[in-house]
């Protein structure tokens, strides 16, 4: 059985010489829910962008058994669903239905299969009645849920989210956390919301200065105030 995500000795420098990742190694099992935390500039976003080949460093990155290399990028990007912090980056069509249908249409599915995918994706995030709504007229919480649905409609094996609760009011935040807990697929989330991480993600990776400095059970690591303080984190 392959790991959903396997990274070995990954390092990456930006063109200006800044070393953003240094010797990162990790494995995430199918169905595992893992959080990635650390101060700004720790390398979290840089690491995430290696999972679908947007960035390429030295070392080895494998997703769903596929090396993240040019010949495999089409299949890798179908396997890894990326949900960005700002839902506006993913919502650009006239209606919610069109946004969620975009991926399956691009994948070449016939109209009846596209509709089936859209209905299932919207239902999975509690947005079943929103198909004909205009995405830009929705609340931030609704937009984030629709952005997740645009990825789920492609039935990825791995869901990767960047700051999913950022900008949400308490009710929308609670709704989103509940939905993330219900989704069955492998999940990697980058977040500063340590309370959400502790509740919804059993395993946490702490990054600082381009390295993974701790990897373990969220309940244990997030209770270690000295560890959190040493790496610019605070559990509110």
Can you describe what's shown?
The chain has 236 residues and is an alpha/beta fold. The chain is 34% helix and 25% strand. It has helices spanning 44-48, 73-79, 96-106, 111-124, 140-152, 170-182, 194-200, 218-221, 225-230; strands at residues 5-13, 19-28, 33-37, 58-63, 66-67, 80-83, 158-162, 186-190, 203-208, 211-217. Strands 6-7-8-3-9-10 form a six-stranded mixed sheet. Strand 9 (203-208) and strand 10 form a beta hairpin. The longest helix is centred in the middle third of the chain and has 14 residues, at 111-124.
Task: Summarize the entry for a quick read.
The chain is of the alpha/beta class.
Secondary structure layout:
Blueprint: E1 5-13, E2 19-28, E3 33-37, H1 44-48, E4 58-63, E5 66-67, H2 73-79, E6 80-83, H3 96-106, H4 111-124, H5 140-152, E7 158-162, H6 170-182, E8 186-190, H7 194-200, E9 203-208, E10 211-217, H8 218-221, H9 225-230
Parallel strand pairs: 3-8, 3-9, 6-7, 7-8
Antiparallel strand pairs: 1-2, 1-4, 4-5, 9-10
């Amino acid at each position: 059985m392959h790991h959903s995500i396997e990274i070995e000795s990954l390092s990456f420098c930006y063109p200006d010489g800044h070393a953003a990742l240094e010797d990162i190694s990790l494995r995430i099992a199918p169905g595992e829910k893992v959080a990635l935390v650390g101060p700004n500039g720790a390398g979290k976003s840089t690491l995430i962008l290696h999972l679908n080949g947007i960035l390429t460093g030295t070392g080895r990155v494998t997703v769903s058994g596929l090396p993240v290399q040019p010949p495999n990028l089409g299949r890798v990007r179908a396997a890894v669903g990326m949900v960005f912090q700002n839902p506006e980056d993913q919502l650009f069509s006239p209606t919610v239905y069109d946004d969620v249908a975009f991926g399956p249409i691009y994948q070449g599915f016939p109209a009846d299969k596209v509709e089936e995918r859209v209905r299932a994706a919207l239902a999975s995030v509690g947005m079943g009645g929103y198909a004909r709504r205009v995405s830009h007229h929705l609340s931030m919480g609704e937009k984030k849920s629709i952005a997740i649905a645009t990825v789920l409609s492609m039935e990825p094996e791995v869901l990767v989210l960047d700051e999913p609760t950022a900008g949400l009011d308490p009710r929308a935040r609670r709704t989103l956390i509940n939905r993330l807990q219900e989704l069955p697929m492998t999940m990697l989330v980058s977040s500063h919301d340590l309370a959400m991480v502790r509740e919804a993600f059993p395993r946490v990776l702490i990054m600082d200065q381009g390295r993974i400095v701790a990897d373990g059970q969220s309940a244990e690591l997030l209770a270690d105030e000295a560890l959190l303080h040493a790496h610019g984190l605070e559990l509110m």
